[in-house]
Specification:
eight-stranded mixed β-sheet
Length: 265
Amino acid sequence: MNETDILIRHYETHDEEGRLLSRHGQVEYITTQKYIHACAQTVGAKLVLEIGAGTGRYSVPLAREGFDVTALELVEHNLDVLRGKLTGGEKLTALQGNALDLSRFADGSFDLVLLLGPMYHLFTFEDKQKALAEAVRVTKKGGYLLVSYCMNEPTVVQYVFQRGNLREVLENHMLTADWHCVSEPKEIFELVRTEDIAALDATVNAAREKLVATDGATRYLCDFIDEADDFTFEKWVEYHLAVCERQDLIGASHHVLDILRKNEL
């Protein structure tokens, strides 16, 4: 089974929609939406591309708000779910495609580009750099690109230690000497550190404006968050949003959002 087939099988059986709808998943969603809207407002965005749109958790609401959205997704099953949400009034074009090849789009086609999933599943620096470069290419000069990553340290803390997988991981040589997880396509997710993201950013014609922890400490406390009453959950979100840009906490977040603005030259 090749890398693409492994990914397709994962998303045919994994409830990603349900993850973002859970209480703990809502923190990531609320945070990401906050920064999407802030960037859109700054540039007066109308044309939005989401690369790796999944089941449309972001694309569909944005289209209902009046944005002209193009949703590109690799997995046909996810596209079927996305299309099933549409009522006919949205400006949304759903296309099957790969983040590594955006040749169907001209340079500078979109005001705002979202790359909120593909970097989770690209396992070489070259592939990640290609996806990022393509996303930057189709972004208008001065436009925004928002890129999500899965972070290394939460997996070491929770999967390796808390869930008792230390011996298995060591025996299978899944950690480097400095405790960086070694991922392969069969593990589904690629894990990075902040310096890995910075190295990718250095290869493209865009400048970082913010690096944001989209869920922060939330998933360490997911049972507590899921069971919290409305008041407690509201205050947790308030706390999280107050600290999500603190760079001393970024690497401990399960997910981060890299906010780039394409250079004018």
